[in-house]
Amino acid sequence: MSFFANADDQGPTGHEQVVFCQDRQSGLRAVIGIYSTALGPALGGTRFFPYPDEQSAVEDVLNLSRAMAYKNALAGLDLGGGKAVIWGDPEQLKSEALLRAYGRFIESLGGRYYTACDVGTYVPDMDVIARETRYVTGRSVEHGGAGDSSILTAWGVFQGMRAASEHVWGTPSLSGRRVGVAGLGKVGKYLVGHLIEDGASVVATDVSEASLAWARSTYPQVDLVDDTDALITSDLDVYAPCALGGALNDDTVPRLRAKVVVGAANNQLAHPGVEKLLEERGILYAPDYLVNAGGVIQVADEIEGFNFERAKHRASKIYDTTKKILRLAESDGVPPAAAADRLAERRMAEVGRLRGILLPRHGF
């Protein structure tokens, strides 16, 4: 793999910085990707995952950090995009020493990158990392943080789903709609609650038996199916991928029966061109980095002193932004993913340009 060629193939600018971190004694092997700081310090979570090889870990951090730059731009945040991955099985490898070693590497970047929770990392982990660095969000309430960011992630996805529903069916209500949720993890659980409360009929699946047991006991009205293949071929109005990325690909899209796709998973499009395949099939896709921005809005609010109601109000605006992008896509004759990219790139260019205006520093 040509690393620089791969990093440069991630949008119009390419990555600013990619940092490889290792602490042999604790077993830490991490990669931090900073895609852009045009709008401010890069913000993005840390994923702790047992990648099959180093190349897979690097590719994931490159894709995820780029998506964070676009997500933060569309969310109206004065923050750039970054992401980190820790390579390994968190069940076997995670320890205080590893997390604190990782925190010291973050601190060494001097504020260019703020981290938060992602797959395999949780609020208590952020509290441990914060013992070594100032640049952590998503901390526990006891330590002055925002707590579980999946709460507003799910809220934002629900708002995006309402906007897509209004665009397709003329009403923002999901009442009477059949929604398929793939993944009942941190975000999927909250999303199911919003859907049930709104009157939707929910069918779901998950690879974890514990998550399925939770659904049976908490929401017995939810229909559970064996796997994602059974879900995507079900009679659905809306499909919500809420697990790992790549859910929309050359195999799944032709078999998908839903009219709308709105989900929490990052990087749902397996490769460029899938958005066109969705459009050809008449399936409306609300870009993942647009609708799942509620979590980053929540943890970003923590940087200025967390206020949940303020953060929820900001996350609710995902509804309006989604409507705007869907209208723009329709008027320009492009897929919503292309319209979202254009808006994000425009903001990064127009607002980021202002950093070229030199400001006097204290003491000049």
Automatic annotation (TrEMBL):
Domain Glutamate/phenylalanine/leucine/valine/L-tryptophan dehydrogenase C-terminal per the UniProt entry, residue ranges: 147-356
One of the Pfam families matching this protein, by short name: ELFV_dehydrog_N
Residues annotated as the enzyme's active site: 83
EC numbers, comma separated: 1.4.1.23
Enzyme class: oxidoreductase
InterPro entries reported in the protein's UniProt record: Aminoacid_DH-like_N_sf, Glu/Leu/Phe/Val/Trp_DH, Glu/Leu/Phe/Val/Trp_DH_C, Glu/Leu/Phe/Val/Trp_DH_dimer, Glu/Leu/Phe/Val_DH_AS, Glu/Phe/Leu/Val/Trp_DH_bac/arc, NAD(P)-bd_dom_sf
Binding residues for NAD(+): 183-188
One Gene Ontology biological process: amino acid metabolic process
Keywords per UniProt: NAD, Nucleotide-binding, Oxidoreductase
UniProt key word Oxidoreductase: yes
Top-rank lineage group of the source organism: Bacteria
SMART domains: ELFV_dehydrog
GO MF annotation list: nucleotide binding; valine dehydrogenase (NAD+) activity
Residues that span the membrane, as ranges: none
UniProt similarity note: Belongs to the Glu/Leu/Phe/Val dehydrogenases family.
Protein name: Valine dehydrogenase (NAD+)
The organism of origin for this protein: Catenuloplanes atrovinosus
Taxonomic lineage: Bacteria, Bacillati, Actinomycetota, Actinomycetes, Micromonosporales
